[in-house]
Every structure is written in C-alpha cells, then in structure tokens.
Amino acid sequence: MTTTESDGPMTTEATPQVTAVGPRTLAWQRRRHSAARFWRQYRTHRAGVFGLAALALFALIALTAPLTVGSDVQSVTDAPGGPMESPSARFPLGTDQFGRNLLGLVVWGARVSLLVGLLAAVLSVAIGALIGITAGHFRGWYATVIMRITDWFLVMPTLVLAIALMTVMSRSIGTIILAIGVTTWPTTARLVRAQTLAVESRPYIERAKALGGGHWHIMSRHVLPNVMPLVLAQTTLIISSAILAEATLAFLGLGDPTVVSWGGLLQDAREAGAVSAGKWWYLVPPGVAIAVVALAFTLCGRAVESVLNPKLGVTR
User: Fold this and answer.
1) What is the pLDDT of residues 64-122, one digit of tens each?
2) Cα radius of gyration (the chain)
C-alpha cells in the first residue's frame, strides 16, 4: 500500500503484487501448453483420430478381458462346445479345434499381442535411441564401428534373426519381446543419429561445451529433448511391426504355447486344417484383429509424424 498527498484529501493506492513462479512450475506450464497444442493439431488428422479410437477400444477390451470372458476361456478340458462349430447365437465367432469359444479367445489374445507389441517396441526404440545418440555425439572410431554393426543388422532379414534367437532360447513371452526388440532397432538408430548430428551442429551446443558441459550433460539436456519427438513417432510405427512379428513367430510355431495370442490362434487353425476344411471363422477373427491394430498404430504414427514435423506433408 502507498499513500499520496495532494490538494484534496489523502488517498491510498494498492500496489499490485506479482506472484513469483518457480522454474519447475514454469516448466510444467510449458509442457501442458505443448501437450494442448499437440492435441489440437492431432485432432485435425481424421485418420489419426480413427486410429486412436480403435486403439482405445482394443486397449479397453484387453484390460477388461478377465471380467468379460474370464481366464477359464483358455481351458481345453472345460471347453463349452464341440470342435470347430460354426458361428451361432451361443458362439458368435464359432469354436476352435478344442471346442473353446473363439470370441473369448480373440478377446483374451488381445492382452498378449498388445503387451508384446508395446514392450518390444519400447525395447527396440530404447536400443536404437541409445546407439544413435552416442554414435552421433562421440563420432570417430566408435561411431564407425557401431554404424557398421548397424548396417549389418539392416541388411540381415529381421525375421531370420528373430527365428534364430527363438530357436536357441526358451519359448516364452520374454523371449519373444527380446527377439523382436534386439532385431528391429537399426532403423531407429540411423534416424536418431542423423537428428543428433543436426542438433550438435547448432551454436548453443558449442556454447554449452565452452561453459564446461560434459558428454552426459550435452546428450541428456540438449540432444535427448530434441530427438524425443522423432523417438515418439518411431515408437508408434514400430509397435505395429512388433505385433506383426509376434504373430508371424507364433504362426511359425515359435510362440509361447502356454498363452493365447492372435498369432497362436492362426497357428492352431493351420494345424487343425481350417484352411482346407473351409472353417473361415477360425481364421478371419484373429487375422482381422491383427490387421486392424497394425493399421491403427500406423495411422497414429503417421499423424504424430505430421504434427511433430509438418514438412513431411502427411495427408489428413
């Protein structure tokens, strides 16, 4: 409060108070504004919104599977129907070769397929980002050696490497995630390295080095935040490839026989002779589920790429 005197009566004026905003609060405000701006731009992509809605539906189905179908849907001894019954009111998608409800199996299989796809993609992107950032930062002999190894992985068929790992390791969900993750990282590594080289050529990196910033400080505080949009977009694209890879491995008989997945259902249908017998309901539901989820992740990935890098010119 301040007091002023004039020819008239004495008056008081209120001094506006400015609330200090801490750096952490300011950082969170900027993140919220960035997230809101990202969502506003993402909503303009109809295909991306459709893909996100489809993924939300499949995620809800997978999370509520224990409540909607129950874990006993996998039981072979307590199968409620006969072998490969056609769709009916009791079994909307028919039954498998053991008489189990195919609708329940497809719903339960969403849990495994989505889990493998997500974890394998995270592992793949983490390896690729680590190799790409370090190769772009250190350069020299380290970058030469690590990028030649990356080129070797690029020219080798991913499926062949994954099959080789699956044959020498135990058949489990963890092995599938590891096999997919360690064979699909080279593309991410090359993209992240190119982005890292572009970031480290900027003037503020030279200033940070001149002020005494070490390797870890440069990579974690300056390079990583600038490559994260690329990493995020690459993750959404790799998830669809990981789901397809899991389905392929399961279809080839290299999946975990103790769990139900979409690829495993296709493998069971092939072994039961559903193709030659014309039992289409055994093949179509898991195949359509794989295709829809892979397409949804691809649409989301393209929309994220377009928002983060408008120069790509991705159609809406």
Assistant:
1) 988 888 778 887 878 788 888 888 888 888 888 888 888 888 999 888 888 888 999 89
2) 27
- The per-residue DSSP string of 104-172 comes to HHHHHHHHHHHHHHHHHHHHHHHHHHHHHHHHHHH-HHHHHHHHHHHHHHHHS-HHHHHHHHHHHS--S
- Residue for token pair 């030649």: 148
Contact 115, 154 (CB under 8 A): no
CA distance 277 to 283: 11
Q: Is the pTM of this model over 0.85?
A: no
Q: How far is CA 157 from CA 111, 154, 170, 184, 309, in A?
A: 27, 8, 21, 10, 30
The predicted model gives 162-189 an average pLDDT of 86
Count the neighbouring beta carbons within 10 Å of the beta carbon of residue 154: 13
What pairing do the DSSP bridges indicate for beta strands 2-4 and 11-13?
antiparallel
List of residues 6+ apart from 90 with CB closer than 8 A: 81
| Angle at 286 (CA atoms; ends 158, 54), nearest 5 degrees | 90
Among residues 111, 107, 81, the alpha carbon closest in space to that of 95 is found at 81
Q: Which amino acid, 198?
A: A
